[in-house]
Design a protein that fits this description.
Has a role in nuclear-cytoplasmic transport of proteins and mRNAs. This protein is of the alpha+beta class. 33% of the residues lie in helices and 40% in strands.
Length: 141
């Protein structure tokens, strides 16, 4: 076995736990986020911090302004068609995860569902274990 192969094997072995943690974090976020968005929107605030940065179809928000925005949106029903997660290895935080979702959303004031794509960056506060949404970008497709 060459030195390069051994190094590659070590990188893969080191990355596997991070990938598994990212996948678990994504599964938890996708279930929790869209359930809260559709059934108990006020509880979404627990997933964000005041410093969270959000882009919603080109409109920029921070945590408090985004909360006001989503609380005033019509009732919704999301259907997630796909999601994916990757650890962000070049992050300053010990645990940062990028989560992408794709699906449809039907708002009560619209006749037909619309396709959307959303990317979340989850990270930790120093000394804390739980992840929060540090950044989110939502876009109609």
């Amino acid at each position: 076995m060459s030195a390069m192969s051994a190094t590659e094997d070590q990188r893969k072995a080191h990355a596997r736990p991070q990938i598994d943690r990212a996948a678990a974090a994504a599964a938890s976020l996708v279930t929790s986020y869209y359930q809260k968005m559709d059934t108990h929107r006020a509880s979404l605030k627990t997933l964000y911090k005041e410093s969270s940065a959000i882009s919603w179809n080109g409109h920029a928000f921070t945590g408090p302004a985004f909360r006001e925005f989503y609380l005033n949106m019509p009732a919704s029903e999301h259907r997630i068609e796909a999601s994916d997660a990757h650890p962000v290895l070049a992050s300053q935080s010990p645990e940062t995860v990028m989560v992408t979702t794709f699906g449809t959303v039907k708002f009560t004031n619209e006749r037909n569902p619309r396709k959307f794509h959303s990317t979340f960056f989850l990270t930790q506060e120093p000394g804390k274990s739980e992840l929060y949404i540090a950044s989110q970008c939502f876009r109609w497709v």
